[in-house]
Amino acid sequence: MLYHLLFSLSDQFSIFNVIQYQTFRTGGAIMTALAVSLLFGPAFIRWLKSKQAEGQPIRAEGPQSHVLTKQGTPTMGGFLILLGVSLATLLWADLSNEYVWVILLVTLGFGAIGFVDDFRKVTQRSTDGLSGRFKLALQFAIAIGAVLWMMGVGPEALQGRLAFPVFKDLLLDLGWFYLAFGAFVIVGASNSVNLTDGLDGLAIVPVMVATCSFGLIAYLVGSSFFAEYLQVHYVPDTGELAIFCGALLGAGLGFLWFNAPPAMVFMGDTGSLSLGGALGVIAVATKHEIVLAIIGGLFVLEAVSVIVQVTSFKLTGKRIFKMAPIHHHYEQLGWAESTIVIRFWIIAVVLALIGLSTLKLR
Asked: For residues 139 and 277, is the Cβ–Cβ distance under 8 A?
């Protein structure tokens, strides 16, 4: 809204010319979302505590230490992130850009699924929530719609095609199968982040690291000048997604203020499903789906650990890890929670740097 309002005044007031720059508006989105999170956070957490007297239900099969350390902490804190992201994006982004609406609607849609799941858990005092199949069906329905929308908006030369890092001219034509592939990327990213969200601050910082990385990728890929210089595929209008990434970074920083150990609030599925879905959409929009698996490698590791654990137990009756996802495995080995979290943050940063390096290795 601010973009359209102030840009229309730039003819009379030259100072408003700065609004046309995506970098300036990204900074504005960061500060706006951060301010929203910090201002509304305390009151929102108090309200959650008043409605969730016993806090988020703790899994009985999870680490026993969580029963003591995390009991009574409210969930659904992801709503605070969504509020900051939505307000900042609507204020600073170009709302005529269809990519902005795709990512905003997917983020809110996945957030709504997570909210219903969290609500059922809290009200029924159960860790079950919505059934896994039903959640996946809803997620795939939203993701397929989003991929269809982006295939219609994107350049015809890239429609239905998968780009590869390092190989600048390699495009794999998947045809309509790309619809299923793109939806899998979005849903997979969403659930991978959800599995990572198990310790205080563990998920939000890697999400912010990945968001910064894809904010830069979106800005570069959406610029014909930088895309030609780096020899990456130019996807017009995706640069505007950098404003959304800025909003997500600011909201994430504000949430981390309250989620830092010992956490005052958990993001819940409301936050984790929506944040992962947002990362998936940006990867599909910018044609960097494979790079997402590198930058978001920590989330992939968490998801794979669960798949390996379940598969091994069903086939052999034996467990590979002491507990899955893998961060619980290290808890069982006696690692302190803060040690696990900080080391996983370091891994996330290293993987992000490796992923970003593919922009120039061509």
From this structure: yes
Which residues, given as ranges, of the chain have pLDDT below 70? 1, 3-16, 53-70, 125-127, 362
pLDDT value for 68: 45
Contact 228, 246 (CB under 8 A): no
Token pair, residue 284, equals 């599909």
- Measured distance CA(343)–CA(336) in Å, rounded: 11
| DSSP label of 160 | T
Alpha-carbon gap, residue 108 to 321, rounded angstroms:
34
Helix (H, G, I), strand (E, B) or coil at 173: strand
Closest CA to 218 of 247, 242, 185: 242
| 116 membership: H or E segment, kind and range | helix 98-124
How is residue 240 annotated by DSSP? G
Q: How far is CA 294 from the centre of its chain?
A: 14
Which domain covers residue 175, as residue numbers?
2-357
Torsion of CA 130, 66, 125, 270, to 10 degrees: -40
Q: Please compute, for residue 282, the number of CA atoms within 13 A of its CA located in the half-sphere on the CB side.
A: 38
pLDDT at position 58 is: 58
For 161, phi then psi, to 5°, come to -115, 145
Q: Which residues contact 238 (CB under 8 A, 6 or more apart)?
A: 99, 218, 221, 222, 285, 286
> Cβ(236)–Cβ(300) under 8 Å?
no
pLDDT of residue 57: 64
Give me the amino acid identity at 135.
Answer: K
Examine residue 327 and state whether it is found in any structural domain, yes or no: yes
Q: What is the pLDDT of residue 65?
A: 52
Spatial contact of 110 and 189, defined as CB atoms under 8 Å apart: no
Is 203 within a domain?
yes
The rounded radius of gyration (Å) of the Cα atoms in the chain is 20
The pLDDT of residue 35 is 97
Tell me how far apart the alpha carbons of residues 224 and 325 are, in angstroms, rounded to a whole number: 41
Q: What per-residue confidence (pLDDT) applies to 129?
A: 74
Count the domains in the chain. 1
Query: pLDDT at position 5, please?
Result: 67
Question: Is 362 domain-assigned?
Answer: no
Tokens of 253: 């920083």
